[in-house]
Amino acid sequence: MKTFKLVSLQFIEDQDAKDIDFIDGLIINKEDEKRTWLIELFTDLSYYDYFRDVQQRDKDLEIQVIISRPENSPAYFFGHIHCIKKMESNVSVLLQGRLTNRQNEFAERLLTDLVQMGLSGEQLVREFSGNLKKRPGHPVDKIR
């Protein structure tokens, strides 16, 4: 296993990136055949209800992180909140996820959604191209 310092974490919700402020965090590559990673955050108690709400959702969470240094490119994960521990004035959150090739998976999900909406032909091409450009931005710009 390899452990890295977590610099930035965002949840991608409805094509928007929600910054998660944290006091400290780390990310662990379990180096298993499933490409599993663990992310642990230590954050303010004010996030407790938000994390509980996210944990209750039926679908995987899309997670964007920056590891080690702010200038690094983001890594993308799909995962879930495994455990939330409330402390006196803080919360410890453990997430489990798998590393993804986000660009390909995002495009596949987007195309599937548009086809399920009944789009085809030129309309499908226009919507697909337009929505690809609306993807959440690179969080490094917010850190600098």
Automatic annotation (TrEMBL):
Under the heading InterPro entries, the entry gives: YwpF (IPR025573)
The protein's superkingdom reads Bacteria
Name this polypeptide is given: YwpF-like protein
